[in-house]
Amino acid sequence: MISVSSTKRLCLLSLLCLVIFVFLGAGDEDARFNALGHKMKCVCGGCNQVLLECNHVGCRYSDRMRGELSSALSRAESDDLVLQSFVQEYGPTVLIAPTNAGFNRVAWIMPYLALLLGLTTVVLIVRAWKMRPLRAHAGVVAPLSGVELEHFREQARKETGI
Amino acid sequence: MAQIGSFALLLALALSAYSFLAGLLALVRPGAGSERLGETARRAGIAAFAVVLLAAAVLVIAAFQDDFSIAYIFHHSNRDLPAPYKFATLWSGQEGSLLFWSLLLSTYGLVLRLRHKTDSRLFAHASVIIAAVQVFFLLLLNFAAHPFAIMQGSLPEDGNGLNPLLQYPEMVIHPPMLYLGYVGFTVPFAFALGALIMRYPGEKWIHITRRWTMLTWGLLTCGIFLGAHWAYSVLGWGGYWGWDPVENASFLPWLTGTAFLHSVMMQEKRGMLKVWNMWLIFATFMLSIFGTFLTRSGVVSSVHAFAQSSIGTWFVVFLSIILVVCGVFYVMNHEHLRSEHRLESLVSRESSFLFNNLLFVVACFAVLWGTLFPILSDWVQGHKITVGPPFFNRVMIPVALLVLLLTAVGPLLCWGKTSVDSLKRNFLWPTIGALAIAAFLIATPVSWGSPFGMRPWHDISYLYSLMAITLSALVALTVISEFIRGGHVISRHAGRNLFASMVHLAHRNTRRYGGYIVHFGVIVIIIGFAGAAFNQDKEKEMGFGDKMTIGPYTLVCRSYTQEDKPNYGSEWAIIDVFKGDRPIDTLYPERRFFKASQQMNTRPTIHSTLNEDLYLVYEGQNEDTGRPIIKAHLNPLVMWIWMGVWIMIAGTVIALIPNAAAAVRVPAPVRVQAEPVGAGD
Q1: Do A158 and B269 touch (CB under 8 A)?
Q2: Residues near B59 by Cβ (< 8 Å), separated by ≥ 6?
Q3: Which of B209, B217, B249, B446 is the most exposed place for a label (fewest CB within 10 A)?
Q4: How do residues A109-121 score in pLDDT, each as one tens digit?
Q5: A 7-66 residues with CB below 8 A of B?
Q6: Residue A76 in contact with partner chain B when CB distance is under 8 A
Q7: Quick one: closest CA in A to B592, which residue?
């Protein structure tokens, strides 16, 4: 038989679990609202701002869109589904950055590819330049004339700044 | 009025066309009389300045006289517009800003033509190229975007007024600065193309254009940051840079111009990268034109595109002509640009410049790619997409961190080859210092506020922020150690105190030490950017006496009210700001309704400290209660950005000052013990 105090304790524990669960869920929903709200932009055409950062005075879209986002989250839809529903309603420009799928992936790849190609090119150039022969004949040590000496002094001055 | 302006524009076109054609003829057919013909071309170019100035003056006078018979004045001004904004009408719309472009170009042309004796033949080439660019803009002004077009029908009582976003003091100076930067790159471009065409011997053209380029770059820097400050102070979203296409357009020539300012040193010192430098300055100029095209054509959707029209085709044709002309002369004369030296080591100043240039060019490509990708997507997928801040931040932050690393490393490497000992000697203490700062930032408690108590494992943005601050510290320490080491050398030779020696050192090589100060400014700005990872914001409806807490601040609404002025009506709140129990400021976030344009606009209010900005926005009123809704942003380290800009300006000014003569002369044959100060320029 369960005593009254045990029942009370059990109820309190259940209540505590429920509260924790609800608040954890709320925190999670807030985080999702924040994350998804930063993946979309306000489509009013006047501000081009991230949905949650739109402060466009008299904006007819951002409040409505935020409301729709809250409703979608309360319906426990997945992130992808929420984003898809916004794309269907407002068009692909509602997403603030290119998706990582299809042709849009090219947008993400190209800058890194350019960096990689550039680095390779620079390394190849450096190697080629290192191997390039000097204009003077290698191995021949000719005595320097006054003009040449002055040229090298000038070069040294330029390169050292002294 | 309109007739005078129209006539001035036609005359300016005729004079510029003559300056171009006669100058060209004098250059391609040297002989008897060509010198005199060239002189008439030069004078025609000078006269064109006077006539374009007249046209611009007419437009400004028309704005002050509320002459709404001119369509441009009707669309961009109104009777109650304050005087400074009436003056700013000149660059507020498409036609006026193109006239302003033309005015600045003719001013640069005037200075160049007056200084023609420096090297008359090279200057004659540059003058012809500038005249050609001027002809393009005057053709646009006369036939596609006429600023003196007359209103049809009955005369309106009042104008539409200036865009409310532009009615802010900084907008009176931001566009001129930006345009001075854009237009200014025409001059080094003209010298570079002229030098290529005439197979100019040596690097003298670079010496001649060095200051033009530096000045232009400095003005563009000012223009960009004035724009950022304007966005921060007016747009009310709490940020200063939104990667908007038009912002990007100003950033593109800045990136290639910065690359040019670095790589040109390799040409001066070592006779290397001649082809690269030539194309860098060509690209910088073309990107300046492209920026103007992007701002004015409306080809991409932007919050900044204040004017949109069909003049895009003109720009595309002009850009194509420039590309063809540059390409043809390069193919004809590229043999002239052969390198004089080879690279000796990967660990050298030369290779650091190569990597520096690579990063700047990749950054430029990434920004251009992101800006134009919506158009590409439209072609390929049949619909546009948005490429916004998350894309640019993700792509650009790693590149910027690499640039920071090179900024720390590059200046301490020697020309030719750097020994391991030298590397150790130069980097050991700055590296230890930077790592100690990073450890300190991680070890401090979160309660100290941003940027202390960093926990880079919590969020990628915190990691980036920590890396940016650590690398910035490394740059700062290497710059300081360079000054101290150089100062010690002078101090030993001249017997002065260390500070006087450092000042003398900077004066003896202003470009090098001015450059270091610019680097210092850049890292101060980067630290400011790093603070964005810790931004917070809150929004609340605030009645009388209501409180809101954000960070260490408590905001109390003292009152809210309305006001009516001739140009606009406004609603605003009076917010007392407390830190703990101590009152520290009273802020007045405001919303204005501009009568002429019937547009609403916010006016944020900012309490700025070295640690953070408290940024309040009047979002609107609750229609049921009539109480204001206030949004508060807490933006750490923003003031560092504006301080960094001032340091950059100071560095640029120092770099523009001519070098002082060396007080200590070392006899040439004496072998001197290598000192890090000799790392080069």
Answers
A1: yes
A2: B5, B70, B72, B73, B89, B90, B96, B99, B147, B148
A3: B446
A4: 999 999 999 999 8
A5: 38-39, 41, 45-50, 53-55, 57-58
A6: no
A7: A57
Domain A4-94 has what CATH class? mainly alpha
* Distance in angstroms (rounded) separating the CA atoms of residues B292 and B105: 14
Hey, are the CB atoms on B236 and A107 less than 8 Å from each other?
Answer: no
- Length of chain B counted residue by residue: 681
Asked if A95's CB is within 8 angstroms of B386's CB, the reply is: yes
ipTM over 0.85: no
- Which residues are registered as beta bridge partners of B605? B616
To the nearest whole Å, the CA of B44 is away from the closest chain A CA by 40
Contact A47 B390 (CB under 8 A): no
In chain A, what residues touch B668 (CB-CB under 8 Å)? 153
> Which candidate from A98, A133, A134 shows the least CB-CB separation from B387?
A98
Q: Is A75 on the interface with B (CB under 8 A)?
A: no
Whole-angstrom distance, CA of residue B298 vs CA of residue B312: 8
d(CA B534, CA B449): 9
**Distance, CA of B317 to chain centre:** 26
B231 touches B319 (CB < 8 A): no
Domain ranges of chain B: 2-392, 486-661+673-681
Residue of B nearest to A94 (CA): B386
Q: How many CB pairs under 8 A join A and B?
A: 146
Q: What is the pLDDT of residue A132?
A: 65
Instruction: Find, in chain B, the residue whose alpha carbon is nearest to that of A102.
Output: B381
Contact list in B for residue A133 (CB cut-off 8 A) is 342
What are the per-10-residue average pLDDT scores of chain B (681 residues)? 90 95 89 84 93 95 90 88 88 88 94 86 92 94 90 81 80 87 92 89 79 91 92 84 88 94 84 85 93 74 59 88 93 78 71 89 95 91 88 92 90 75 81 91 82 80 90 91 86 83 85 91 94 88 90 91 84 91 91 80 89 90 85 93 95 89 50 41 39
Neighbours of A141 (CB within 10 A): 7
Q: Which DSSP category does A41 fall into?
A: B
Query: Whose structure tokens read 């000042």?
Result: B503
CA angle B637–B642–B647, rounded 5-degree value: 115
Candidates A129, A132, A147: best to mutate against B (most CBs of B within 10 A) is A129
Token match 């949905």: residue? A51
* Coil vs helix vs strand at B198: coil
Among A54, A57, A152, the residue to mutate for chain B (most B Cβ within 10 A): A57
Neighbouring residues of B630: CB distance < 8 A, sequence distance ≥ 6 = B539, B540, B541, B542, B548, B555, B557, B573, B575, B589, B616, B617, B618, B619
Match 């005593």 to its residue by tokens: A3
What gap in Å lies between CA B636 and CA B465, rounded to an integer? 12
Q: How many CA atoms lie within 13 A of B29 on its CB side?
A: 11
Domain positions in chain A are 4-94, 104-160
- A41, A50 in Cβ contact below 8 A? yes
DSSP letter for each residue of B442-506: HHS-GGG-TTSS--TTT-HHHHHHHHHHHHHHHHHHHHHHHHHHHHHHHHHHH---HHHHHHHHH
Task: Tell me which H or E stretch contains A64.
Answer: helix A62-74
In chain A, residues with a C-beta closer than 8 Å to the C-beta of B274 are none
Q: Do A130 and B343 touch (CB under 8 A)?
A: yes
**CA–CA distances in Å: residue B11 to residues B8, B51, B524, B555, B657:** 5, 7, 48, 61, 38
Interface touch B361/A118, C-beta < 8 Å: yes
Say whether A91 and B677 touch across the interface (CB within 8 A).
no
Question: What's chain A's length in residues?
Answer: 162
Per-residue pLDDT at A23 exceeds 50: no
